[in-house]
Design goal:
This protein has 16 helices and 16 strands. It is 34% helix and 22% strand. With 430 residues, the protein is α+β, with helices and mostly antiparallel strands. It is elongated, with a radius of gyration of 25 Å. A six-stranded antiparallel beta sheet has the order 1-2-3-4-6-5. The chain folds into three domains: 15-99, Phosphorylase Kinase, domain 1 (2-Layer Sandwich); 104-289, Transferase(Phosphotransferase) domain 1 (Transferase(Phosphotransferase), domain 1); 326-428, Kinase associated domain 1, KA1 (TATA-Binding Protein, 2-Layer Sandwich). Its cofactor is Mn(2+). This is non-specific serine/threonine protein kinase. Belongs to the protein kinase superfamily. CAMK Ser/Thr protein kinase family. SNF1 subfamily.
Length: 430
């Protein structure tokens, strides 16, 4: 992480987090987050925990960034991407519990001296397989740099920090992204033009800068004057060090092509002669280590949710209420049931009518309830988790003033408790 603002303490001490993790030493910190080494109390597993200050995030206007990072990281399962295990929240902080990369930042290693061409190629191959995986799933990192590339205990590369990432639903009708972001020395020329850009092409440019840094030990575009550096980037003006092989020079020229339309693509990179050297063995290793998320591209209505989805629907992991400070709050509660969706909806409608609530809208597995002259609004939806379990999601529009505030908690919820799945009952056979 970048060092911004406050000076970190020498040690975080051993702090127990919600009875699950013991926080250890501080690994790094930024504008509104600190990253600690931690230990899972139950398993002894080492993890990294990113503690995000809600107050600082809200003050800085970065709520959407945090939500997006959680959403994106929860979807990515790749051998060369840092894994997000779970997310915890307290009144003041949000905690990302992540895979611990024992080897630290790639930046730390490269700052001690440039890499050999073979080692540079190995890391570049790992980087490109991970970036290609992201792009195939509509995720663009937009801030690839050595500081955001970590190393595990075997010194394999891991991409982290998806806070500036974009997904395909942020693409405008012209097919391009328009948000300016990234780190100055790594930004693509089209970002400087302040026009729309292709997120995949921007990532490929940054991968080119990373490769140059690995082989050279310094940045391709660097100047004490920021505008002078931007002019070099915009024109694609750089010089390869004399020890660069002709094959690598050709690849760098295609990666650092100032014209995004003619810049090399992921598929072209993988077929490049310099890149392909030794890649077959690495690719096989990657496939053996990585279990593809086969359900990722299934239709939303048909798929069963994976383990992370179930965790994310549990209490304490509600992003919609995590940062809400408006005059009305959307309070969300979710619980699991072993009843069939149709039976769930029948029971909900029965209880709603009993309490004098109007069913304003109805769909197969969902309903919108209204009452108290518009001061009470609730949406209930049923999602299938497995063949035998469903998740019931209740969203209540909570008005700070006015009647109807306790309708769900005091009147509806107690009458629906029989729907809630009790694992111990299932085990005992009751």
């Amino acid at each position: 992480m970048e060092v911004v603002g406050e000076t970190p303490p020498a040690s975080a001490g051993e702090v127990n987090l919600l009875g699950k993790y013991e926080l250890g030493k501080l690994l790094g910190y930024g504008a509104f987050a600190k990253v600690y080494h931690a230990r899972n109390v139950s398993t002894g597993q080492s993890v990294a925990i990113k503690a995000v200050s809600k107050a600082k995030v809200m003050k800085g206007g970065f709520v959407a960034h945090v939500k997006r990072e959680i959403s994106i990281m929860s979807r990515l399962r790749h051998a060369h991407i840092v894994r997000l295990h779970e997310v915890l929240a307290t009144k003041g902080k949000v905690y990302f519990v992540m895979e611990y990369a024992k080897g630290g930042e790639l930046f730390t290693r490269i700052s001690k001296g440039r890499f050999s061409e073979d080692l540079s190629r190995r890391y570049f191959q790992q980087l490109i397989t991970a970036v290609g995986y992201c792009h195939a799933r509509g995720v663009f990192h937009r801030d690839l740099k050595p500081e955001n590339l970590l190393l595990d205990e075997n010194f394999n590369l891991k991409i982290t920090d998806f806070g500036l990432s974009a997904v395909t639903d942020q693409v405008r009708p012209d097919g391009l992204l328009h948000t300016l972001c990234g780190t100055p020395a790594y930004v693509a020329p089209e970002l400087l033009a302040k026009k729309g850009y292709d997120g995949a092409k921007v990532d490929i440019w940054s991968c080119g800068v990373v490769l140059f840094v690995l082989i050279a030990g310094y940045l391709p575009f660097n100047d004490t004057n920021l505008m002078a550096m931007y002019r070099k980037i915009y024109k694609g003006q750089y010089r390869c060090p004399k020890w660069t092989s002709p094959e690598l020079k050709r690849l760098l020229s295609r990666l650092l092509d100032a014209n995004p339309d003619t810049r090399i693509t992921i598929d072209m990179i993988i077929n490049d002669p310099w890149f392909k050297k030794g890649f077959k063995e690495e690719k096989n290793l990657y496939l053996d280590e990585f279990d593809f998320d086969k359900g990722f591209e299934e239709d939303e209505d048909e798929k069963s949710l994976n383990a992370f989805d179930i965790i994310s629907f549990s209490s304490g992991y509600d992003l919609s209420r995590m940062f809400n400070e408006s005059d009305t709050m959307i309070l969300t509660e979710r619980f699991v049931s072993a009843e069939k969706p149709e039976k769930v909806m029948e029971r909900i409608e029965e209880v709603a009518r009993k309490e004098g609530l109007e069913i304003a809208k109805r769909k197969n597995w969902g309903a919108k309830l209204e009452g108290w002259n518009g001061n009470f609004i609730m949406i209930i939806e049923v999602h299938r988790l497995t063949d035998h379990l469903v998740m019931i999601e209740v969203k209540e529009k909570k008005f700070k003033m006015g009647p109807g505030q306790e309708t769900w908690e005091d009147k509806l919820k107690p009458q629906l408790r029989s729907l809630i799945y009790q694992p111990e009952q299932a085990v005992s056979g009751n």
